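Intended use. Records like the one below are meant for learning the mapping from a protein sequence to its folded structure. Do not use them to infer anything beyond what is encoded.
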Amino acid sequence: MKKLSVLSILIAAVSLTFSQVSLAACGEIVLGSAISLTGKYATNGIHAKNGYEYAIQKIKENGGVKIDGKCYNFKVIYYDDESKGDRGATLAERLISQDKVSFMLGPYSSGMTKAIAPVTEKYQIPMVEAEGASRSLFNKGYKYLFAVLSTSEQYLASAVALAAEMAEKSGKKASSVKVAIAVENDPFSLDIRAGVSEDAAKFGMKVVIDEKLPRDLSDMSAILTKVKLLKPDLLIVSGHSKGAATAVRQMEEQNIKVPMIAITHCEAADVTGKFGDAANDILCSTQWAETLAYKDPMFGSAAEYEMGFKKAFSEYKDKKVPYQTAQATAAVYVYKDAFERAGSMDKEKVRNALSATDMMTFYGGIKFSAAGNNIAKPMVLRQIQNGKYNVVAPSAFASHKLNWPRK
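Structure written out for the chain above:
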């Protein structure tokens, strides 16, 4: 018995040694990211960074990236771009020229991506990004830019169709709907404005307010005064997380009553946590929801992804995991898939593998057009109902009935 015990201990020790050697033998693939950890985009920049890090850890736990019979783990060099485009471009240069990074993860926001993309393109560095949705990014002929998310003109355009549907159900014409638009003066929000304006025109709707939010996104009271006066049927607001918080707070303060209100970045702004019932019945665009029927072998279902992420990042345990985090994780997962299909760490081979991506993930389908945008995943609208985010459009994905008009 003693001999068996000693033998068991020796076998266990040898197994542990081999396990440690095997783990230590994994190489490293270094990615770079200039991302907003301070400044006006910091909230979502941190969400994105956490999404990157969760993917990196999950991939490591599952044996890493397999290339030519060897394993590799991802590591990211981060620099804080302070939410400033010129600094982001400078940091991208530093990552490529000084840190010798050959593969990039995107920054947060369309504006920051727009600042960095010319740099990565100049050096022919592949960049998989998850947070820059502006369609203007994908008409420049870039060959090294790949985005896992849906483009921005799709974000709130579906709210226009929903408003038309509600008008017709109440016995009115879709063309009777009056639309108010208030957006940040940045590429992402201007594309949202364009998408909403184009769809409103298709229905013959009148845009009665078309305003830019103040630069610091801290006060939209003047715009809301116009809303009270002109009584639109649909109010569209896009100003990232800070703009969303300002909109919900000031609509409550000014007692704004609009039948349908649609806003971007509701979750990132934590409008339910900060403003309670004041956020009820607001429509929120989302790239992803944990209730959607997406799944993959690495992260499981959308619901399982949310559970796993909350376990890894306890600060999210009492709130929804924002889609910015999920899509950041998806970006790293896309890199894993591309490296393994390329069978190489040569940046041109990886770039070519990225362009041929066609995969299903917990975040949804990912397939890149020739321009680099994802053409395999739709946007959805969720409505805040008693503090919960419920999918109400499009109808094929709806889990709940729309509350309309908003009280």
